[in-house]
Design brief:
Blueprint (H helix, E strand, L loop, with lengths): L3 E3 L8 E3 L54 E6 L8 E6 L9 E4 L13 E9 L2 E8 L2 E3 L2 E3 L4 E6 L4 E6 L12 E5 L4 E5 L20 E5 L10 E8 L11 E4 L13 E5 L3
């Protein structure tokens, strides 16, 4: 399968993705300090900032306004095959509706078979063809994103990506086949997995890790050979951590967990 990477926040590592990549969310926003070590790419510098190389962001269009000429839509793309880093207008080539299967022409051309209101996402290579699911653009604006029931707005890569992606419970991991529940921006979303890296092993992006794990920065882990390693989510009500030197700590700052996520923890070093 063709894979690229998604970038995400500081206690976490970035996300590896198919057909493009997402940048990490800013640290904080309700995530506990311990976990603010980054869901972002772990081939980070000492500053631990971006997976996306320094470059001016010169988009042709606004993905929130969808301000392209008639017959076109504003989508994320990459000029060099790396992570998505800007937006451009592409012709609407199909009529696929959200939830429909779609074909994708790659992260550089960024055209697909979806209609004007969606983009081909969760792409996988199937018999030489890139196949995904038409996924709605978020409505509203970055400060007040609007998505349908059981989805939330995945915003990433300097704002080049804004898609309504299914929400999930990291303790249940009840996403569809080939997807897992990862913290991706300001919510837990079902995102395609890549390398299925196991607990305690070095990772570079949030979706490198096997389902039920999270790519955390090395400073919150007792034994990590690299900038970041996979560590398990855990249930604060019935805490179990299998790696010596870790304990189940709340994923969120006290009182800031969204409804339904109050029991979500992550296995990290005490304190």
């Amino acid at each position: 399968m063709m894979r690229t990477k998604l970038v995400t926040p500081l206690l976490f590592s970035a996300l590896s993705c198919l057909g493009g990549c997402i940048e990490k969310p800013a640290p904080g926003d309700g995530v506990a300090d311990a976990t603010e070590t980054g869901l972002v790419e772990t081939s980070t510098t000492d500053e631990g900032n971006n997976f996306v190389p320094d470059m001016p962001i010169e988009s042709q269009c606004d993905p929130w306004a969808q301000d392209c000429p008639e017959g076109e839509k504003c989508v994320p793309y990459s000029e060099n095959g790396g992570p998505w880093h800007r937006n451009k207008c592409v012709p609407v080539l199909g009529e696929g509706q959200p939830g429909d299967s779609c074909t994708y022409d790659g992260i550089t051309s960024a055209t697909d078979s979806c209609g004007a209101g969606s983009h081909c996402w969760d792409v996988q290579e199937v018999e030489g063809e890139l196949i995904g699911v038409c996924t709605s653009f978020c409505e509203g604006n970055p400060d007040n994103p609007i998505c349908g029931p059981d989805t939330s707005c995945l915003m990433a890569n300097e704002g080049s990506i804004n898609l309504c992606v299914a929400t999930c419970d990291p303790l249940l991991q009840a996403c569809d086949e080939n997807l897992a529940c990862y913290w991706s921006n300001n919510d837990f979303n079902c995102i395609f997995t890549t390398d299925n890296i196991g607990e305690g092993e070095s990772c570079g992006f949030i979706n490198d890790c096997v389902a039920g794990n999270f790519c955390a920065l090395s400073e919150v882990l007792p034994d990590c050979d690299g900038g970041s390693c996979c560590t398990a989510y855990c249930d604060l009500v019935d805490p179990v951590c299998n790696v010596e030197g870790t304990e189940c700590a709340s994923f969120f700052d006290e009182g800031l967990a969204a409804p339904g996520y109050e029991d979500v923890g992550v296995c990290i070093m005490p304190g």
